[in-house]
Amino acid sequence: MSFLDPVPDLPATVDTSQPSAARAYDYFLGGSHNFTADREFADQVLAIAPSIPAVTRLNRSFLRRAVLYSLDQGIRQFLDLGSGIPTVGNTHQVSEHAGVPARVVYVDKEPVAYHHAQLVLAGSETTTIIQADMRQASAVLNHPDTRRLLDFSQPVGLLVVGVLLYLEDPQPAELIRAYRQRLATGSLVAMSTLTAEHASPTLRAEMDLLRGAYEAAGEPVYPRDHAEILSWFDGLDLVDPGLVTLPEWHTDDPNELDDVARPLGYGAVARVP
Ligand SMILES: C[S@@+](CC[C@H](N)C(=O)[O-])C[C@H]1O[C@@H](n2cnc3c(N)ncnc32)[C@H](O)[C@@H]1O
């Protein structure tokens, strides 16, 4: 099914005339779950920040490796915050592809991501999506679907990948603190976000223009530097190699290390002690 076609049962309240960052991200990844306004916005971003599709792919690749690592460490249940539109390579697909069954609760506030995920996941007994603002940790953790699928007495994989860039300070640190209180020892927390700290002058100029475009579209983004992101992991045990640029984290495709967008994203995985 393509969202270039009429979307079945899309709630009338969804305003597709306004661009959404979630649907622009889908467009950057080559997905088709986006509308004219999203594509126009995304094309505008591409014109001023051509490295963006590359950083979205690096981020998606980090998500895959973080999920595979977690499965390898025995994690069998995931809470995926800001999960996005379910294009290829979502958490449940990574686990299916690896042949390791896992339970997954996706959380996204964006109505098209929610609606489409519901269609894709219909009939699944192990994976679901909640439409919620992830900042409402208590509502997410106590949601009936979360309680049905996730057992917080056992380790959980908390995925906060490519989404904290949308939160203003001090929300990322508060959010991680709120969720980690519920996580059993041995749980893993994976985070990635946008940075411009070591970007070349060209990339930095791209980031400035990008921030302006997202702000104008009502979806401001906040690149962070290493020290600040590291502080979000306070009280957790960082898995080697710590907080590094996305392709450096458990690299499985050395070509990614040469990617021009590499300085634009940091990621890490940490264990709940
Ligand atoms: C860039 S996508 C990342 C998708 C996926 N995690 C990945 O890394 O590929 C960010 C997603 O976070 C969602 N999002 C942003 N702020 C959110 C919030 N406060 N609560 C829930 N979802 C949010 C957006 O709707 C979007 O779908």
In short:
By secondary structure, the protein is of the alpha/beta class.
SS class: alpha/beta
Small molecules bound in the structure, each named once: S-adenosylmethionine
The total of helices stands at 10
Relative helix content: 25-40%
Main sheet attributes: strand count, strand direction, barrel closure: 8 strands, mixed
Find the CATH superfamily. Answer: Vaccinia Virus protein VP39
CATH architecture annotation: 3-Layer(aba) Sandwich
Write down the CATH class: Alpha Beta
Q: Radius of gyration, Cα only, in angstroms?
A: 18 Å
- How many domain modules? 1
CATH topology: Rossmann fold
What is the succession of H and E elements?
HHHEHEHEHHEHEHHEEE
Mean pLDDT: 92
Q: How far do the termini sit from each other?
A: 43 Å
Proportion of strand residues = 5-15%
Structure report:
The protein is an alpha/beta fold and 273 residues long. The protein has one domain (52-198, 220-271): Rossmann fold, CATH 3.40.50. The protein is built from 10 helices and 8 strands. Strands 1, 2, 3, 4, 5, 6, 7 and 8 form an 8-stranded mixed sheet that branches. α1 crosses α2, α2 packs antiparallel against α9 and α3 crosses α4 (91-98). The termini are far apart. Residues 1-6 have low confidence and may be disordered. The chain binds S-adenosylmethionine. S-adenosylmethionine (SAM) is lined by residues 22, 25, 59-60, 63, 82-84, 107-110, 113, 133-135, 161-163, 166.
